Amino acid sequence: MTAQTHAARPALTASDMLLQYQVEQFLYHEAALLDARRFDEWYALLADDLEYWMPVRSTRSLADVEFEFAPPGGGAYFDDDKVSMGQRVKKLTTGFAWAEDPPSRTRHHVTNVRIVERREGELTISCNFLIYRSRLANEVDVWSGRREDTLRGSAGDYTIVTRHLFLDDVSLNSKNLSSFL
Amino acid sequence: MSETIARAAAGLVDFEQGTVNRRIFVDPEIYRAEIEHIFARCWLYLAHDTQIPKPGDYVQVMMGEEPVLVCRDADGTINAFMNTCRHRGNKVCRSDVGNVKSFQCPYHGWTYNVRGDLIGVPGHSDLYHGELDRRQWGLPKVAKVDSYRGMIFGTFDPGAPTLDEYLGDIKWGLDMLFDQGELTAVPGVMRWQMDVNWKFASDNAIGDMYHGFWSHRSAFLAGHTAGNGAASNASLTPSLTNGFTMVTKYGHGFNASYVVDPGRFDPGNPLLAWRFDPKVQGELGPLRARVNRANLLVFPNLFVNTGSRDLMLRNPMGPTKIEIWKTGLVDANVSPEAQRAAVRATNRHFGPAGMFEQDDGENWDLSTAAARGTVSQRYDLNYAMGLGNGELVDDGQSPPRFDTLTNEHAQLWMFRVWSELMSAGSWPELEAHHSEPPRRF
Predict the structure, then answer these.
(1) CB within 8 Å: A73 and B339
(2) Which residues of B are catalytic?
(3) How confident is the model over B257-278, as a mean pLDDT?
(4) Is there a domain that residue A8 lies in?
(5) Any idea which fold B44-147 has?
(6) Which residues of B touch A92 (CB under 8 A)?
(7) Which domain holds residue A49?
């Protein structure tokens, strides 16, 4: 699940640079939609076969650190598909979504973007995220981790097929996680 | 000192009027007294048996604010002892879960076996001249460890009643979950922290059937349902009569709602097999067979949900902080696909991002914050719903129950037991004046 973290350094050709640019611009656009609370437009970027997953983590000794993330079928903060993500988006506009009404203020920082695998029509991207959330008068949450996305499409026109989020914490220091990461 | 505080705190609950003073949710001295009178005294949930199947398997858990290791011995016995070296107090284990032959303190190398006995001291023969009696310096043991249907509990108090006595009639409620199949813990405990007093979380668990239609309204409206096929059929108005409420001796209790339309259950759904299994239905009996889902509290801090099948422990981390530890359960006898579906449902339901629980976090946090005020503390909280209208039904179908679903009897009962524990100096003192649930609320 984390095997692609240490992918070999890519060859830096002009076409690699163009692809890198296209991918980064897509990810920045997506982050901007979330921060602007344009959730319907954001939802349109999700593929119909979406898998959106953020497993829980535990502190393990070095000898079995490979097991620190719970496997699929274990505890996960997000364990969603396109339909359930649609419910999450719909929830926000019901007028009764107390955790997000008044809305949180978020800032998505996406960095260290690497294209770790290329297949016909699909790319696997690894990037880091740092999301700052400010809520009500003085509540602040910071969520940091690594993200592995599968993007489908070409030339900067992508849909998100999988998003696997690997948080840096074993215990989330937040009363809730009512934002999209 | 804390004895005096504890007795004074007990006076902040008015059982007759159904009111609770907000001080009990924020006061640091009351909190210290709770740690002593409740968390160092009551049986506390530790872990599920299936989390440590093999000899040497362990999990690190919390009992109140004390880190504890729960470990399986070569003969299958479960041991629980404190995770603090007897030499300088460092943790002898810093991982959450694993398998070991022994625990070795990283500070000076004192070594303990999986029963917590001290088996190795560097320099024992020369530096200590062979004079340190290792038998006296094992890791402090949890006084009693026992389990009920796979749930392992422990108490620090050797004077506590047996687990069987402590749980009492709440076992009848817990069986509604454990009769559903061979329930086994899924990998990965979900943990998150809230700026919440632990009692607001327990109060919600034991009997708040009032909040669902409103707190979780957005989830219902968005089409979210969750559970083992027991889709939440709560309507968007709370029901007085569609279910029942139970309170039991040591502060436990639950509310259980009835299935509104049994025809909606799909007999082909493996997660619902228990609803169509005559043996299981026979064990449950007619009343429990009617239950859609129940929210239970094992006092002081374990929330059990029979629909989404989770065990959710709310560990205190100070007067206004808790850490929630959620363990999901799946039926070992259904297909991997059915297990996966069940886990997905609970992951989407409870947790910081859960369609239900994200709104709980918002509400409990603000209830706690508002209890800090000198002036707000002059205004008691209202726990009087249904007070004066509750009558215990004792018809042999169940332990005594109230035949109403939405009321605040169970919450009020929890605070009454809380106040009795706070004012009693020991288990014998508690037993001497502890009350059974009254016939009328």
Answers:
(1) yes
(2) 108, 208, 211, 216, 360
(3) 86
(4) no
(5) Rieske Iron-sulfur Protein (2.102.10)
(6) 218
(7) 13-167
| Contact B222/A at CB under 8 A | yes
The whole-angstrom distance between B312's CA and the closest CA on chain A is: 12
CATH number of this structure's domain B2-41+168-433, picked from the four choices 3.40.50.300, 3.90.380.10, 3.30.710.10, 2.120.10.30: 3.90.380.10
Q: Which two tokens stand for residue A151?
A: 């993007």
CB contact under 8 A, B221 and A59: no
Which residues 6+ apart lie within 8 Å of B410 measured at CB?
B206, B207, B245, B246, B247, B253, B254, B255, B297
ipTM: 0.95
Q: Does B326 touch chain A (CB under 8 A)?
A: yes
- Per domain, the residue ranges of chain B are 2-41+168-433, 44-147
The answer to whether residues B19 and B381 touch, using CB atoms and an 8 Å cutoff, is yes
User: The whole model's pTM is what?
Assistant: 0.96
Closest in B189, B194, B222 to A56, CB measured:
B189
- Give the count of alpha carbons within 13 A of B404, CB side only: 20
Measured CA to CA, the distance from residue B176 to residue B158 in angstroms comes to 30
pLDDT in tens, B317-327: 999 999 999 99
Between the alpha carbon of residue B350 and those of residues A27, A147, B24, B354, the distances in Å are 29, 23, 27, 4
DSSP letter, residue A123:
E
